[in-house]
Design goal:
CATH class of one domain: Alpha Beta
Number of strands: 10
Distance between the termini: 37 Å
Bound molecules: adenosine-5'-diphosphate
Strand content: 25-35%
Radius of gyration: 18 Å
Number of helices: 9
Oligomer: single chain
């Protein structure tokens, strides 16, 4: 089986501040992985390295079997960062326009055609925001914005979604509906890697967990993870180092 992402012996420091030590993990195509760990434990950094957005100091990263720095098929990757909406929220741009951006990588310099428009409509439909298509981004709730970015990734025909704390600031009901959407997309074959600070929530929905705190403490099925002491080990090492503050299950 081809792995969606392979990380081997990755080490990374910001200047002289070590963040990741010898991290290795392989994410299978079709996996739904929750990446957890204390604040400042390197989750966002690892996610960016996995997507080839940041270079490790040492070690190797592959995307769909290709070294990340040589991977050119960016339309396969949908990344929703914590700051995705910063730009569009202040510009007078509609939901449909943001989702349509997902088609440009395919169209190149050709104008978009009816088929592109149909794919955009379908993406809006799939994430349940067809009725918001003409609304400005600045008038959306946090959850609606996240759905818009996922629709943009679907419009670009991404088969890997990487989401960095997508439900921060989203109310409980919308958060549950959002996870239902992710489960649905995963069942249709999309690989999902998700950073989530709320361990109670994430373990309810994902299939596998990777627990990080500078080094990788565990990567296994959710049930096995809950039986293990990885969480305790990762978080107690954070307490010992005085670095972490963590939400669990609230
Ligand atoms: P997490 O996502 O687990 O909260 P991050 O990967 O964001 O962790 O950050 C890991 C550590 O690296 C933190 O101590 C953070 O302050 C530091 N850090 C993150 N980004 C930068 C940066 N651009 N420059 C310097 N230090 C950074």
């Amino acid at each position: 089986m081809t792995h969606a992402i392979t990380v081997e012996n990755v080490t990374f420091a910001y200047d002289d501040r070590p963040v990741l030590r010898d991290v290795s993990l392989a994410i299978e195509e079709g996996e739904f992985l929750g990446l957890i760990g204390p604040n400042g434990s390197g989750k966002t950094t690892l996610l960016k390295i996995m997507l080839g957005l940041q270079q490790p100091d040492s070690g190797r990263v592959e995307l769909f079997g290709t070294p990340a720095d040589a991977f050119t098929d960016g339309t396969r990757l949908g990344y929703v960062s914590q700051h995705s909406s910063d730009g569009e929220s202040t510009m007078p741009i509609s939901v449909r326009e943001v989702v349509t951006m997902g088609r440009y990588a395919h169209a190149g310099i050709s104008p978009l055609d009816d088929e592109d428009a149909a794919i955009v409509d379908d993406a809006l439909e799939q994430v349940g925001i067809a009725d918001l298509a003409d609304r400005r981004m600045s008038r959306l709730s946090g959850g609606q914005k996240q759905r818009t970015y996922i629709a943009r990734a679907l419009a670009s025909e991404a088969d890997l979604l990487a989401l960095d704390e997508p439900t921060v600031g989203v109310d409980t009901e919308s958060r549950d509906a959002f996870y239902d959407l992710l489960e649905d997309l995963n069942q249709r074959g999309i690989t999902i890697v998700l950073i989530e600070h709320d361990i109670g929530v994430v373990t309810e929905h994902v299939d596998t967990i990777a627990c990080l705190n500078g080094e990788l403490y565990e990567h296994c099925g959710t049930a096995e993870f809950l039986e293990s002491d990885a969480l305790e080990r990762a978080f107690s090492s954070a307490r010992a180092a005085g670095t972490a503050s963590v939400a669990s299950g609230d």
